[in-house]
Design brief:
heterodimer; A: 117 residues; mainly alpha; two-stranded parallel sheet; 5% strand; B: 393 residues; mainly beta; five-stranded mixed beta sheet; 9% helix; 31% strand; globular
Chain lengths: 117, 393
C-alpha cells in the first residue's frame, strides 16, 4: 500500500508534475458560501473541487457521498455534516446546468487563471 | 422512438448538449484548447479535464477519426495520485501467492520474455456516466473515456508459467504504485485465472510502439483486452495468484452491475450484483459535431464502433431521428479487441434540423439499444449515439 506522507503530500498538493511554472492553480474552487472553507478543508487534501462541482445529485445521494467520504478520511466535524450536505445539495443538485470542463494543452503555460465554478 | 421530432430551431438547439453548445461558441475546439481556460498537462493536447488532481482526462469525440489513438489524445483515468517519477531501473514486479516459485522481475527480465502485441480498445466502465438519468455519482464522463492503442509486452500467461501456477489458482490480483490518500481504500482488483491465462492479457511495457508514458502506467501496466479499463492496472508492481477474488472497495461494491435490470434510481443489494468484465457493443459519432451548422451538399458521417471481446458486424446510421436506417461502411483496419472506423456518405435533401444516430451490432447478436440500461454506478452506457445538426442553405 502506498500512502501519502511528508514531502510526497506536498508534491501531490502542488500538482508539481503538471503545472510547469504556472502562476495560478489549475484546480477548481468550491463556490462561495458559509461552509466553503470547511468543505475545502474536508475535501481538497485528497482531490480537487472539480470532481465535486461536476456532480448533479439529490440530497439523498449527497448524504451517501458525504458519509462515504468521512469513512475514507474526510475530516468533518460531526456538527458540520448536515450543513455541508445542504451546501453541496444547494449548489450541485439535479437541476443545475451541466459543468463546463476546461481543456488541456500540452504546452507549458506561464500564466493560468483559477478556474471557478 | 425516444427521438422526438423537434419543433423549432430554438427548441432544437436547447436540446443539444451543453458540450455541443460550447463547440458552437468556439467552432475550432483545437483553438479553444489553448485558449484562456486551457490547463497545461504536458503530453496531453486538447483533452477535456474531468479532474486535474487526481488526473482524469477525456478524449473529445471529434478526435476519434484515427484507428490508432495517438498517446497525446488518449484518455486518462486515475483513481488515485499517479506515483512520483518511477525509475525503470529500480522498478520490480513481484509475482506470488498460489505459485510454485515466487518471482521478482526487473524491467530487463521482462524484456527477455517474448513480446506479444494486442490492439485494444480501452474504455472506462463509467464512460457516458453523465448521460445517465437520474444522475449517479462518479467522474461525469461524456462520451470519450475510450481509445484504441497497440499495447506490447509479455503475456501474463508467460510470466505466470515462469512462476508455476498451482492447481488452487482461481483469480489473479494486480496492484499498482498509485499513491492512496487519507483512508481511501487502495485501487486493487482481480480478474479470473481464465482471463489472466488467455494469452492476450498483457503486462504491457509499450503503447503505440514507444515506452508507456507516466500517464499510462510506466514502466508496466496490465492490459486485459476487451474488458472494462478497471481490469488494466497501471504502474503494476505486484501480481498475486489467489484461490478467491480480491476483496476491498473496488471489487465490492465498486465495479459491479446489477444481475437483473433495475428501475432508474433504485438501490441494489451487493449480493444482487456481479463484477464488470467485458465491454458491451457501442458506437460513437465523431463527426459532424453535435450542434453543428452545416452547408447543403455532400457530407460524411463518421465514427468508431467496438464490442469488447466480440466483433463489430455492422453499424447502421439514421439521419431522420431513427425512422429509417442504412448501413455504414466499415473501415479496413481491424483486429480482435479493436474498434472499427465507419463512415456514411450523406447529402441532406433540404435545409432544416436533423438528428443523426448510429447503432452497432456485434458477432454475439448484441445491438446498441435506443436507451441504455440505468444502473446505480452508471456503467456501460451504450445507447445509440446521437448528434443534432442544422443544415442551412
Amino acid at each position: 500500500m502506498y500512502r501519502l506522507s511528508g514531502s510526497l503530500l506536498i508534491f501531490a498538493l502542488l500538482g508539481a508534475p503538471y503545472t510547469l511554472g504556472a502562476e495560478a492553480s489549475p484546480v477548481a474552487e468550491l463556490p462561495a458560501g458559509p461552509t466553503q472553507e470547511k468543505a475545502t478543508a474536508a475535501c481538497a487534501s485528497c482531490h480537487e473541487a472539480r470532481i465535486i462541482v461536476q456532480q448533479r445529485l439529490s440530497k439523498a445521494a449527497w448524504t451517501k457521498e458525504m458519509d462515504k467520504m468521512i469513512k475514507w478520511g474526510a475530516e468533518v466535524d460531526p456538527k458540520d455534516r448536515d450543513a455541508l450536505i445542504d451546501y453541496f445539495s444547494a449548489n450541485f443538485g439535479p437541476d443545475q446546468a451541466p459543468y463546463e470542463a476546461p481543456r488541456t494543452t500540452a504546452k507549458a503555460l506561464t500564466k493560468l487563471p483559477t478556474t471557478k465554478h | 422512438m425516444r427521438w422526438t421530432k423537434v419543433s423549432s430551431r430554438r427548441e432544437f438547439l436547447r436540446t443539444a448538449s451543453a458540450g455541443a453548445m460550447a463547440a458552437v461558441a468556439f467552432p475550432s475546439f483545437l483553438n479553444a484548447a489553448v485558449g484562456p481556460t486551457a490547463i497545461s498537462v504536458p503530453g496531453k493536447e486538447g483533452l477535456i479535464v474531468r479532474s486535474y488532481r487526481f488526473l482524469d482526462l477525456e478524449t473529445p469525440v471529434e478526435f476519434m477519426t484515427d484507428w490508432i489513438t495517438p498517446v497525446q489524445h488518449f484518455f486518462v483515468r486515475n483513481h488515485m495520485f499517479a506515483p512520483a517519477a518511477v525509475e525503470g531501473k529500480e522498478w520490480k514486479l513481484a509475482i506470488g501467492g498460489q505459485v510454485e516459485k515466487p518471482l521478482s522481475l526487473t524491467l530487463s527480465d521482462l524484456q527477455s520474455v517474448p513480446v506479444h502485441s494486442v490492439t485494444n480498445t480501452l474504455e472506462c466502465a463509467g464512460n457516458g456516466r453523465s448521460l445517465q438519468s437520474p444522475k449517479v455519482p462518479g467522474v461525469q464522463w461524456g462520451k470519450g473515456a475510450v481509445g484504441n492503442a497497440r499495447f506490447s509486452g509479455p503475456s501474463v500467461k508467460a510470466l505466470l508459467e515462469k512462476a508455476g501456477v498451482k492447481d488452487t489458482a482461481r483469480h489473479v490480483v494486480f496492484r499498482g504504485l498509485d499513491v492512496v490518500p487519507g483512508k481511501v481504500p487502495p485501487f486493487v482488483r482481480s480478474i479470473p485465472i481464465e482471463k489472466a491465462m488467455d494469452g492476450d492479457t498483457l503486462v504491457a511495457t509499450q503503447m503505440n510502439g514507444a515506452a508507456l508514458t507516466p500517464h499510462h502506467g510506466y514502466p508496466a501496466r496490465v492490459i486485459a483486452p476487451g474488458w472494462a479499463g478497471a481490469a488494466s492496472c497501471k504502474w503494476l508492481t505486484e501480481i498475486t495468484v489467489q484461490d478467491k477474488p480480491a476483496d476491498g472497495n473496488f471489487m465490492i461494491p465498486g465495479y459491479r452491475m446489477p444481475n437483473q435490470p433495475v428501475k432508474p434510481g433504485e438501490a441494489v443489494k451487493p449480493e444482487d450484483t456481479h463484477s464488470v468484465t467485458g465491454l458491451t457493443v457501442k458506437s460513437l459519432i465523431a463527426g459532424p459535431s453535435d450542434g453543428a451548422k452545416l452547408k447543403p451538399g455532400a457530407h460524411v458521417v463518421r465514427g468508431v464502433a467496438w464490442a469488447g471481446e466480440a466483433e463489430i458486424q455492422r453499424v447502421d446510421i439514421s439521419t431522420d431521428g431513427g425512422a429509417s436506417w442504412n448501413p455504414a461502411k466499415l473501415g479496413k483496419d481491424q483486429a480482435k479487441y479493436a474498434w472499427r472506423l465507419w463512415s456514411y456518405p450523406w447529402k441532406p435533401a433540404h435545409s432544416g434540423d436533423y438528428a443523426i444516430l448510429s447503432r452497432a451490432t456485434d458477432s454475439q447478436g448484441r445491438v446498441q439499444p435506443e436507451s441504455a440500461v440505468w444502473n446505480p454506478s452508471g456503467y456501460f452506457y451504450n445507447a445509440c449515439d446521437q448528434v443534432k445538426v442544422y443544415v442551412q442553405a
